[in-house]
Amino acid sequence: MVAAVGLFAAPQARAVYAIAQYGEPKYPAGFKHFGYVNPNAPKGGTLVLANPSRLTSFDKFNPFTLRGNTAPGVDLLFESLTTGSSDEVASAYGLLADDIKVAPDGLSATFHINPRARFSNGDPVTADDVKYSLDTLKSPQAAPQFMSIFGQIVRAVVVDPQTVRFEFHQRNRELPLLAGGMPVFSRKWGMKADGSHIPFDQLAFEKPIGSGPYLIERYDNGRTIAYRRNPDYWGAALPVRVGMYNFDRIVYKLYSDSVARLEAFKAGEYDALVEYVARNWVRRDVGKRFDSGELIKKVFPQHNGTGMQGFMLNTRRPLFQDVRVRKALDL
What we know:
By secondary structure, the protein is an alpha+beta fold.
């Protein structure tokens, strides 16, 4: 009888709309949209961008394998069980999932999938798809970093068609956020007409089946790719999506080097250039069109959580034990 009372008195996992690694989520239950978006932003038009990285071409749509170069922007095709906000650190709000339960012992997290969630082919997103995604990403067919990222997730267990439980090796407040942030894709991606599958590490230009707000519209010779907003996107009214993904089309043009990319911007071939190098900002991003105001050069201050750059010096080596040496390197 005492044992039974103890069992019923044990703490129970609590279903919530969001979780946070530190403290509580910023946005309360029932929030309408993130504070940094305009819920009434107009929709339409085309945004043209250049290479977002040093890659100058692409030969696949699959961003989860090691070989080859992935087309820019393919993250627009995929979603995860949860998503973060840009004005806080380490919080996760339901996206594909509509509630989250973290076990009292911290060794598992259970996600219930929103019954409205749909892949681009119209199929519902199911717990089987979530398990398939984890198993695939942890397999030898995916790039090795995913085994490292999700290595502390022991397994995904299908509880029912809409519920999946992730089990962890150890208690760690970050693991439920990692599980929630895992990209989810359909088991039918790469399926042939006869029901057989193209091996995951051989998927190239087979269009991904994800649940994201955009679809691939066209691409050309590994240098240009255009995405169109999915008119049937399932999540447009979610609080974590209101005010976002407003362009009808997003186009990427890939240029062979940074000089060609800058000259193309000056010529009006694409719409926006984000500059990360102070020297370029001062010396290179100049000219008549900047002076005339045709090209607008502007700093956008923000206070979001961000990464860092620095030196990590091995002070066990005598060379680096002198603080003056470390200061000189820093200078």
